[in-house]
């Protein structure tokens, strides 16, 4: 009888532990899924925000400037006596303000956004702005002077 | 006597099962909430791309006053929208001696549900200037 009791106790204990193990594994899976989901949402939000904000920033600069020059390294936006040089370097979008007709070099600017690349193309009064953020390309077309 | 000794273990077992059931239901609810958040994030991403697309269309449309051409140019240069998005457009054109005033209405649907609608206008003078 004592053996039977001991066996029953052992089975109950093992069963309880197995249930707890199952519970712990399920909780770990739920936590992993939740963390993955949160990480994905956070990354998407960060990427979209950076891309859209940088596109809007550049498009507003284009619209408000008098003259736009597109160079290999970036773009020069002249407005009155001031010129803004916007360029992408080392994983960031930089802006530098200088006087018109001074030396336009792409260094020493202030970092605005963390982006991997930027291209601006001009076709018939329309500027196509493309920014590359975390491997994703976002583009928009803007018309100057509107 | 024997039955009295076994009862506490059975009760403990039942208690564990009830606790696990409760936590399992809580886990299921949490998972569904996260799945919903994930879907909302995806929908937000689509909406942002749709807004950017329609603004680009408006910029091009203000230049040429041609809806089909504007959509074609934006699709070529900015890329296609998500495949689940259906774009419908309508145009109102008013001719006048000095030029043509046209309005463009864009409507974006996702799974038969309107997610964004947009209106813009263009005025093309007879000489061709905007």
Largest sheet of chain A: 5 strands, antiparallel
Question: Segments of chain B where pLDDT lies below 50 for 5+ residues?
Answer: none
What is the count of β-strands of chain A? 8
The biggest beta sheet of chain B is recorded as: 3 strands, antiparallel
- Summing up helix and strand content along with how strands pair, one would put the structural category of chain B as alpha+beta
Q: Which series of helices and strands of chain B comes N to C?
A: HHEEE
Radius of gyration of chain B: 29 Å
Distance between the termini of chain A: 94 Å
Number of domain units of chain B:
1
Structural class by secondary-structure content of chain A = alpha+beta
Helix percent of chain A reads: 40-55%
Overall 3D geometry of chain B? rod-shaped
Give me the number of helical elements of chain A.
1
Measured by DSSP, the beta-strand proportion of chain B falls in 25-35%
SSE diagram, text form:
The complex is a heterodimer of chains A (146) and B (130).
Chain A: H1 2-64, E1 67-70, E2 74-79, E3 82-89, E4 92-99, E5 110-113, E6 117-123, E7 126-133, E8 136-143
Chain B: H1 2-64, H2 67-78, E1 85-95, E2 99-110, E3 113-125
Antiparallel strand pairs in B: 1-2, 2-3
């Amino acid at each position: 009888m004592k053996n039977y009791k001991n066996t029953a106790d052992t089975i109950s204990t093992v069963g309880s532990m197995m249930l707890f193990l199952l519970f712990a594994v399920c909780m770990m899976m739920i936590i992993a899924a939740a963390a993955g989901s949160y990480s994905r949402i956070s990354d998407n939000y960060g990427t979209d925000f950076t891309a859209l904000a940088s596109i809007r920033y550049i498009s507003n600069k284009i619209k408000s400037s008098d003259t736009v020059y597109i160079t290999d390294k970036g773009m020069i936006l002249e407005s009155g006596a001031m010129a803004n040089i916007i360029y992408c370097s080392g994983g960031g979008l930089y802006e530098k303000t200088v006087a018109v007709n001074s030396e336009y070099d792409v260094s020493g600017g202030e970092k605005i956004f963390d982006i991997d690349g930027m291209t601006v193309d001009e076709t018939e009064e329309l500027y196509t702005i493309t920014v590359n953020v975390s491997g994703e390309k976002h583009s928009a077309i803007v018309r100057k002077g509107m | 006597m024997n039955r009295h000794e076994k009862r506490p273990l059975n009760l403990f077992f039942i208690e564990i099962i009830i606790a696990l059931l409760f936590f399992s239901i809580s886990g299921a609810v949490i998972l569904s909430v996260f799945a919903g958040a994930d879907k909302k994030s995806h929908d937000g991403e689509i909406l942002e791309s749709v807004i950017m697309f329609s603004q680009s269309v408006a910029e091009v449309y203000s230049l040429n006053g041609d809806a089909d051409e504007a959509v074609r140019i934006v699709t070529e240069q900015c890329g296609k929208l998500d495949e689940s998005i259906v774009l419908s457009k309508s145009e109102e054109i008013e001719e006048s001696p000095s030029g043509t005033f046209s309005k463009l209405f864009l409507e974006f649907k996702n799974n038969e549900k309107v997610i964004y609608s947009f209106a813009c206008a263009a005025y093309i003078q007879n000489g061709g200037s905007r």
